[in-house]
Amino acid sequence: MSTLPRRGLNARQAETVQKLLDAAAQELAAVGPEALTIRTVAGRAGVSPATAYTYFGSKNHLYAELFHRKVLLEHPVEQAVEVGGRTPVERVAAVTRHLATVLGASPHLASAANHALLGTDPDVERLRIVIGAEIHDRFRSALGPDADAELLDALTLALTGALLQTGMGLISYDDLADRLDAVMATILRGNA
Amino acid sequence: MSTLPRRGLNARQAETVQKLLDAAAQELAAVGPEALTIRTVAGRAGVSPATAYTYFGSKNHLYAELFHRKVLLEHPVEQAVEVGGRTPVERVAAVTRHLATVLGASPHLASAANHALLGTDPDVERLRIVIGAEIHDRFRSALGPDADAELLDALTLALTGALLQTGMGLISYDDLADRLDAVMATILRGNA
DNA sequence: TTCTAACTTGGACACGTGTCCAGTCAGGTG
DNA sequence: CACCTGACTGGACACGTGTCCAAGTTAGAA
Q1: Within 7 Å: CB of B41 and strand C?
Q2: Is A154 close to B186, i.e. CB distance below 8 A?
Q3: B118·A114 Cβ contact <8 A
């Protein structure tokens, strides 16, 4: 499956993939990440399980792809950063608030992705790197081009940890944004 | 299973549990987290699978318990903090270095626990909270009793994120200690 | 010693995962 | 229009998970 996820899909294939992703999003919202199976998603998409496995080699891959599209691609943050404020603290807060909002709107997806992105499939690995880079870039554009690498690292790790704890239920989605604000401000203090 | 993990085990049961945990550690080191199954662990422990499921309701529970015992209970950090240095930065570094060392010695366990602690079983949830509290306490004793809550939060989240990324392979165990040093120092700057 | 409560066992069960492959179907090409 | 390539299908397969239960076994009480 490692070759199939995006590159070089013809129209028909792309449509099949889209149907699967749409069905997965619906199924996820309907029954949650535990109850969802590839076969029910395939059924909902009007496609055979074998076909589903052609495009998504594992449930993890499906979740990771869905997360990437729904959370990152469909919700770019450029404007949030630009209108987010004049200081780095404000712009960083805009990044994390934006993410918290998007995730809070799809808690099932967030929790599913939490598990999925830990997977070892090559497909998941690829998406993990893409997603990590995207987060990194968002912080970089919030901090400006001459940001300290260690600082970026600290922000990214703290965000990662917060998302993890949210997925585990230790932080509620309602609290996430505020918690992140406070943590980011704490980290930035002395590093602005 | 939620009632059985620790409380009120008689000698025979405690021995069974210990045999299972020992077998799990061996199996984990031998074949890695993916290939391990409850049944092979039970076999190695000389116990039936049904018995194994009596004490560990899921593979996640088994991993979480193993992690808690091997990483936290068998490796208390008190002395590390005490001899770690005089400044908060040095003592925090002692905590994270200590953890990084222990985890680096059992990468399979670390990665298994990474997955497992995300589980939804009640047993896992309980251990998650216990483990989280333990980490929190370590930072608190490193920072002193009057530590800022937001600062503690930031350190904990960054550590969590770093452990996550290590489990995912984005940070090597060799780099982990140094990365953590740098990140912790960055966060502490301006918050000492 | 005998009894009893409990821990343990073997084995079946339903279910999900991911793989595989021979066969079917559709759409564009000649 | 017949063809042919590539996507899709159906269904079996091996495997692991976690559940269940009737029967066996063991340790400690009477």
Answers
A1: no
A2: yes
A3: yes
Which nucleotide, over all strands, has the C1' atom closest to the CA of B53? D18
A49 touches strand C (CB under 7 A): yes
Length reported for chain B: 192
Co-location of A36 and A113 in the same domain: no
What CATH code is carried by the domain that includes residue B108? Answer: 1.10.357
- Asked if A162 and A176 touch (Cβ cutoff 8 Å), the reply is yes
The answer to whether residues A151 and A182 belong to one domain is yes
> How many CB atoms within 10 Å of residue B113?
26
Report in angstroms the alpha-carbon separations of A69 from A57, B54, B99, B115, B165: 17, 41, 35, 23, 21
Domain that holds residue B113: 69-188
Q: Do B88 and B51 lie in a common domain? A: no
Tens of pLDDT along chain A (192 residues) come to 444 456 688 889 999 999 999 999 999 999 999 999 999 999 999 999 999 999 999 999 999 999 999 999 988 887 666 766 789 999 999 999 999 999 999 999 999 999 999 999 999 999 999 999 999 999 999 999 999 999 999 999 999 999 999 988 889 999 999 999 999 999 999 887
